[in-house]
């Protein structure tokens, strides 16, 4: 891949083609030249009851107002370039902040949880998640009419036949990085064939968006590596992959609709829906703006096996408890095979596109090597552990379903190393019932980065699982494969939860009754948890593995998360953010689901009084201690129980020689503290319990 840095200059790549003038009467300049009253009317139209302006629209309105006000004052004021630059920076910052809900006192670590804390520590800690916590009222309002429902209503109503245009565009997102079984890509290709025009694939980078959404450098690197493979594969089908970059995420709908599509002469845009609240709002804005500008935007379900909203209780209500939801999910899939139907590979463009003046240049668009702010110096090693491309994902899946587990595979090594022994009976999936809770081997599939980025689809994965059972989807705790299918269904479940109760992706606990649990503000503890120096070997091993691989086994995600929340009593949202910033498989729905489960605030959470004993968990999930020995080399010579709890199993002079820290909290005391704070929400215990 070429060494290329993406700049925040919005025109740096997207306008590789000189934009064609939009053919509709609603050109950008027309709307910019609107009178103030027209803008006010538009604002009023947006704000009429039941049709609240979303962030994107508000931004849009305010931009128009700013344009008008600037025009009015243009004669009076001649700006100096430095003043203009400063103003632009301020506006840019304001714009990004505008996207964030206000931090409400009393519900945030600043105003509520850390009420008893003082000084600058408090500010810094709160700052880390400031802007990510909506007020209870905002969250409740969003839940009342979730953006998913709004988007579906838009899709059902108001579609009109637009002109054919010169091309059809498929806008690929960072959650659907594949060609096979890609609904929007296939539908776009069908439309292009119907019109006899070329199909263009588009990818829009937004470093600003990645920053706001805590994307990890490993994840961005993984996206770039996969895009590079896709570019080659798409070119084989004569489909160019056009890339653009806009730092300011809130501008993306407008840029796509009013700049990129006109430049491509496209009147039809196809996208797969992403279910996070900001992404849904972006798509709502894109559809609405598209309609203003004569572009038909088709938003399609693709990400999950069963789209949100399809599983309801007998009373027709959405379900928030996993077990009954899961049974309904499995039943639906066995009764309605349509959910497994995969989209064929799209038909390519005619070879002549490569000599077409309008489109041939798009084949020169390149995938950058890195994105500024998300450089991944360890890319080479990470790409060995997480090789890119759908073919590699399929190979991983094959190995999981047909080969035996290997102890060495928890290390920093390629999952496709030779030496995996084929066995149907003792395959990893057949041993999954026990294996899934063990960390000292490759007991699970390791597909999460691929599923999170859509390099392989949930349908493709479950289809292979079905083949092992003669076409029937086995689901349940009795067999390895049934257990694994259940695990895969968590992915659908948490996305259903997020689409139905968007509050969970707005920093709110699903169970508001725990909103005011009192959290500790302890920068040092938080940092030691991140660094893997807590003195609890299993937590430290997991956190160090996370830093190196960008990934942890499910059991240690639960153990490490529980340690932060219940043992250190640190706000779960700080842990949620750190996992997102570190994981190669970072996925809002799954990550938030995992954290809220652990923090006992989620839809179907671990009861607050059930608190993991870190040492017992360690003995169960790493019985030989091999995982700890590898990831915490200070302990590599320890044997027996000492590997799980060296401080309490070694003479103090011997322990000191290890160069390994003492435990930062006492399990018994911290457990009592957590129980007190959860039982007495809003209160703190007496000092003798505080650590
Ligand atoms: C605190 C916490 C944070 C988490 N953060 C993420 C995250 O950011 N991204 C992510 O993909 N998973 C997350 N998980 C879920 C789970 O830990 C990982 O999906 C799993 O460990 C990935 O390993 P695997 O691919 O080998 O999974 P397997 O056990 O082989 O499962 C197959 C697939 O099913 C899905 N899956 C399995 N368990 C879950 C689950 N509990 N929730 C949602 N999907 C699941 C994943 O797509 C996974 O790849 C989190 C769990 C916890 C407790």
Which structural class do the helices and strands define?
Answer: mainly alpha
Counting H and I runs of at least 4 residues, what is the number of helices?
31
CATH architecture of the largest domain: 3-Layer(aba) Sandwich
Q: How much β-strand is present in the residues?
A: under 5%
CATH class descriptor name of the largest domain: Alpha Beta
Protein name: Photolyase/cryptochrome alpha/beta domain-containing protein
Biased composition (Low complexity): 18-37
Cofactor: (6R)-5,10-methylene-5,6,7,8-tetrahydrofolate; FAD
Family: Belongs to the DNA photolyase class-1 family.
Please supply descriptive tags for the structure shown above.
single chain; 691 residues; mainly alpha; Rossmann fold; Serine Threonine Protein Phosphatase 5, Tetratricopeptide repeat; 4 domains; 31 helices; binds flavin-adenine dinucleotide; Rossmann-like_a/b/a_fold
Note down, in words, how this protein is organized:
The structure is a single chain. With 691 residues, the protein is mainly alpha-helical. It has four domains: 34-99, no CATH class; 147-321 and 340-364, HUPs (Rossmann fold); 379-501, Serine Threonine Protein Phosphatase 5, Tetratricopeptide repeat; 512-679, DNA Cyclobutane Dipyrimidine Photolyase, subunit A, domain 3. The protein has 31 helices and five strands. It has a five-stranded parallel β-sheet, with helices on both faces. The protein is globular. Mean pLDDT is 84; it is low at 1-127. Residues 1-15 have a biased composition (Polar residues). Residues 18-37 have a biased composition (Low complexity).
């Amino acid at each position: 891949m070429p060494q290329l840095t993406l700049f925040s200059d919005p025109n740096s790549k997207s306008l590789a083609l000189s934009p064609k003038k939009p053919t509709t009467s609603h050109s950008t300049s027309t709307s910019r030249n609107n009178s103030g009253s027209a803008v006010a009317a538009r604002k009023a139209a947006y704000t009429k009851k039941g049709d609240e302006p979303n962030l994107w629209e508000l931004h849009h309105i305010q931009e128009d107002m700013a344009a008008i006000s600037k025009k009015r004052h243009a004669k009076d004021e001649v700006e100096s370039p430095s003043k203009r630059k400063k103003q632009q920076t301020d506006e840019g910052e304001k714009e990004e902040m505008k996207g964030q809900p206000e931090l409400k006192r009393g519900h945030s670590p600043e105003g509520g949880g850390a009420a008893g804390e003082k000084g600058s520590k408090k500010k810094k800690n709160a700052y880390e998640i400031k802007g990510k916590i909506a007020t209870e009222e905002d969250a409740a309002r969003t839940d009342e009419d979730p953006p998913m429902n709004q988007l579906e209503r838009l899709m059902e109503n108001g579609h009109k036949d637009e002109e054919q245009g010169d091309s059809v565009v498929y806008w690929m997102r960072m959650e659907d990085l594949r060609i096979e079984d890609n609904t929007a890509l296939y539908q776009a290709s069908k439309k292009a064939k119907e019109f006899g025009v070329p199909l263009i694939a588009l990818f829009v980078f937004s470093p600003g968006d990645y920053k706001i959404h805590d994307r990890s450098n490993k994840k961005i690197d993984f996206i770039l590596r996969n895009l590079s493979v896709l570019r080659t594969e798409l070119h084989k089908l004569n489909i160019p992959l056009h890339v653009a970059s806009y730092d300011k995420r809130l501008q993306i709908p407008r840029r796509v609709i009013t700049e990129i599509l006109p430049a491509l002469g496209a009147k039809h845009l196809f996208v797969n829906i992403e279910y996070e609240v900001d992404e849904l709002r972006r798509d709502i804005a894109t559809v609405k703006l598209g309609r203003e500008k004569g572009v038909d935007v088709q938003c399609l379900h693709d990400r999950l096996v069963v789209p949100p909203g399809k599983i309801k209780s007998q009373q027709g209500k959405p379900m928030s408890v996993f077990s009954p939801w899961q049974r309904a999910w499995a039943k639906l899939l066995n009764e309605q095979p349509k959910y497994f139907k995969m989209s064929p590979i799209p038909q390519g463009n005619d070879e002549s596109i490569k000599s077409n003046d309008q489109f041939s240049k798009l084949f020169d668009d390149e995938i950058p090597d890195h994105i500024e702010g998300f450089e991944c110096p360890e890319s080479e090693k990470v790409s060995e552990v997480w090789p890119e491309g759908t073919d590699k994902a399929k190979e991983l899946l094959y190995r999981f379903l047909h080969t035996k587990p290997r102890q060495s595979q928890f290390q920093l090594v390629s999952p496709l190393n030779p030496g995996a022994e084929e066995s149907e009976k003792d395959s990893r999936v057949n041993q999954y019932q026990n294996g899934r809770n063990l960390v000292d081997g490759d007991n699970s599939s390791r597909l999460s980065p691929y599923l999170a980025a859509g390099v392989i689809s949930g349908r493709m994965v479950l289809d292979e699982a079905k083949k092992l059972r003669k076409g029937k989807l086995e689901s349940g705790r009795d067999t390895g494969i049934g257990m694994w299918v259940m695990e895969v269904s968590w992915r659908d479940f948490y996305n259903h939860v997020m689409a139905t109760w968007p509050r969970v992706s707005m920093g709110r606990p699903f169970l508001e009754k725990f909103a005011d649990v009192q959290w500790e503000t302890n920068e040092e503890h938080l940092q030691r948890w991140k660094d893997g120096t807590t003195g609890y070997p299993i937590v430290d091993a997991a956190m160090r593995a996370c830093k190196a691989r960008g990934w942890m086994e499910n059991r240690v995600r639960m153990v490490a998360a529980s340690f932060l929340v219940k043992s250190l009593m640190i706000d779960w949202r700080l842990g949620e953010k750190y996992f997102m910033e570190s994981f190669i498989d970072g996925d809002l729905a799954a990550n938030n689901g995992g954290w809220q489960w652990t923090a006992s605030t989620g839809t179907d959470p671990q009861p607050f009084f059930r608190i993991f004993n870190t040492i017992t968990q360690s003995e169960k999930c790493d019985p030989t201690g091999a995982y700890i020995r590898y990831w915490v080399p200070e302990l590599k010579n320890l044997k027996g129980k000492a590997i799980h709890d060296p401080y309490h199993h070694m003479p103090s002079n011997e322990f000191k020689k290890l160069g390994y820290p003492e435990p930062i909290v006492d399990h018994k005391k911290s457990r009592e503290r957590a129980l007190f704070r959860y039982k007495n929400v809003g209160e703190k215990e007496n000092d003798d319990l505080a650590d």
